[in-house]
């Protein structure tokens, strides 16, 4: 790597015009990083204030009654235990195993490593323009966390003008920002969408969007985990068939053409004898093995067991009472019931099975992870296409986070050196040897001003001012970061 960097230094010396253009490019990076530093500090302050406000002023709520997500499958008992996971918290820290699946940890580490490599290449490229030779570069790993590094001689960097130092310091974060813009542009232009079928076919995956969606994983904390296996093909929700790309999203967002509502033929005697207490709005969410149905002709409410009706695929359907037999009425699920029939097929089987979900339909989307790509061979993992999509998302998130986080004025980060360079550029760099400048001391004792028009005491005052500004900025930023991490982690976990 050192040889490559040395060659880049020589190339920069031999191509002065191109070097000038690149210097202008990194000057733009210096300005951009200044804006980024202000944005990073603003986001940190706003997030900390929001977390603190939520923690201090959050009203006390009584513990709500447990909501019942009744699940039923033909030949299986109904599960009557549930957990209610909801959060109104806006800021969600990315914690593998808590806020994101633990399986995403390798993807996150890979994305961060790639972002760090891009970051260090920025420092290396900018230093070559300033004829600062790199002393070392490489990769390291601490426990399970990989990282990249580039080592530059500090004496050579300190000898540069503030503008040159700022180019090198801001080169890393600026490369992260350019990388982020490139990733977003590729996504917005539809390049990934166009390449996905080609890459999937080469890897051995088949697009099954005209047949349904394959189940990649089910949340272990969801009741659906016990009923819908991985690898199953979900084909329908109620009477809506998943036979085109985007049908899954259309169902949950309600943007599809709804088919005619059909009910089930039920004996008039059963309807008359059935209670109607479960149809009361005040009882919505309370555990009950019954569901609310509406009699199609009179509109009367009745609480019925949904399993014999919705769980039988050959049960006669009806739109009006005329389609039912004598002494039968057409019963349709009420909106209060929130019933969803999930139709699915096991792999290599044609028979469809039905799971009856009693609850909010959005909870199905949150619990069940699906894909339109089915592996043609059993050795291929179900989650590979989804992992590639998640990796691209983490690449965007990681490189943008590195851009903003590295610009915070904290020790061991680029932000501290950037702030020092900006202060030198605005207030003057001075000389590190002014305190021991004999001529300056003699001039001060004789009451004479130095040749540059500044007194020795003014040089010391400027240095003290810069040190004070950096000290205050670092302490404030550190306090905000610690408070943000503590509050965010506590709220993210709870």
UniProtKB/TrEMBL annotation:
<dbReference type="GO" id="GO:0016020">
    <property type="term" value="C:membrane"/>
</dbReference>
<feature type="transmembrane region" description="Helical">
    <location>
        <begin position="94"/>
        <end position="115"/>
    </location>
</feature>
<dbReference type="GO" id="GO:0004222">
    <property type="term" value="F:metalloendopeptidase activity"/>
</dbReference>
<keyword id="KW-0472">Membrane</keyword>
<keyword id="KW-0812">Transmembrane</keyword>
<feature type="transmembrane region" description="Helical">
    <location>
        <begin position="177"/>
        <end position="203"/>
    </location>
</feature>
<feature type="transmembrane region" description="Helical">
    <location>
        <begin position="21"/>
        <end position="46"/>
    </location>
</feature>
<protein>
    <recommendedName>
        <fullName>Endopeptidase S2P</fullName>
    </recommendedName>
</protein>
<dbReference type="InterPro" id="IPR001193">
    <property type="entry name" value="MBTPS2"/>
</dbReference>
<dbReference type="GO" id="GO:0005737">
    <property type="term" value="C:cytoplasm"/>
</dbReference>
<keyword id="KW-1133">Transmembrane helix</keyword>
<dbReference type="GO" id="GO:1905897">
    <property type="term" value="P:regulation of response to endoplasmic reticulum stress"/>
</dbReference>
<feature type="transmembrane region" description="Helical">
    <location>
        <begin position="136"/>
        <end position="157"/>
    </location>
</feature>
<feature type="transmembrane region" description="Helical">
    <location>
        <begin position="472"/>
        <end position="493"/>
    </location>
</feature>
<dbReference type="GO" id="GO:0031293">
    <property type="term" value="P:membrane protein intracellular domain proteolysis"/>
</dbReference>
């Amino acid at each position: 790597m050192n040889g490559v960097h040395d060659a880049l230094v020589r190339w920069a010396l031999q191509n002065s015009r191109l070097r000038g253009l690149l210097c202008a490019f990194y000057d733009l990076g210096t300005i951009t990083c200044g804006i980024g530093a202000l944005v990073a500090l603003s986001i940190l302050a706003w997030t900390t204030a929001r977390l603190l406000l939520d923690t201090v002023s959050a009203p006390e709520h009584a513990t709500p009654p447990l909501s019942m997500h009744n699940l039923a499958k033909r030949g299986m008992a109904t599960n009557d235990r549930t957990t209610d996971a909801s959060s109104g918290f806006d800021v969600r820290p990315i914690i593998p195993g808590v806020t994101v699946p633990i399986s995403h940890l390798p993807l996150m580490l890979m994305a961060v490593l790639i972002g760090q490599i891009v970051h260090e290449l920025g420092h290396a490229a900018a230093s070559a323009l300033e004829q600062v030779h790199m002393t070392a570069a490489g990769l390291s790993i601490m426990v399970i966390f990989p990282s990249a590094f580039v080592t530059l001689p500090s004496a050579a960097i300190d000898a540069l003008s503030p503008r040159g130092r700022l180019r090198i310091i801001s080169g890393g974060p600026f490369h992260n920002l350019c990388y982020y813009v490139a990733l977003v542009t590729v996504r917005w232009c539809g390049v990934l969408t166009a390449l996905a079928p080609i890459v999937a076919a080469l890897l051995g995956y088949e697009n099954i969007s005209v047949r349904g969606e394959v189940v990649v994983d089910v949340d272990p904390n969801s009741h659906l985990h016990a009923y819908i296996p991985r690898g199953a093909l979900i084909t329908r929700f109620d009477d809506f068939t998943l036979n085109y790309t985007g049908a899954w999203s259309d169902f949950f967002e309600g943007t599809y053409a709804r088919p005619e509502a059909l009910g089930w033929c039920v004996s008039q005697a059963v309807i008359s004898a059935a209670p109607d207490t479960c149809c009361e709005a005040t009882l919505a969410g309370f555990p009950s093995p019954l569901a609310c149905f509406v009699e199609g002709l009179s509109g009367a409410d009745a609480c019925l067991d949904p399993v014999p009706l919705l769980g039988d695929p050959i049960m006669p359907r009806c739109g009006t009472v005329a389609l039912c037999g004598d002494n039968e009425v057409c019963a349709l699920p009420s909106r209060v019931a929130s019933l969803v029939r999930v139709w699915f097929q096991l792999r290599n089987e044609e028979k469809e099975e039905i799971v009856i979900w009693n609850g909010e339909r959005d909870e199905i989307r949150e619990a069940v992870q699906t894909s339109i790509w089915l592996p043609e061979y059993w050795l291929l993992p179900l989650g590979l296409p989804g992992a590639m999509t998640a990796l691209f998302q983490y690449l965007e998130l990681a490189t943008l986070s590195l851009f903003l986080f590295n610009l915070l004025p904290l020790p061991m980060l680029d932000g501290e050196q950037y702030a020092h360079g900006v202060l030198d550029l605005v207030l003057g760099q001075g000389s590190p040897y002014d305190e021991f400048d004999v001529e300056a001391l003699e001039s001060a004792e004789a009451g004479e001003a130095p040749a540059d028009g500044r007194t020795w005491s003014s040089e010391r005052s400027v240095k003290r001012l810069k040190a004070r500004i950096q000290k205050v900025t670092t302490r404030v930023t550190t306090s905000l970061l610690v408070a943000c991490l503590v509050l965010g982690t506590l709220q993210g976990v709870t």
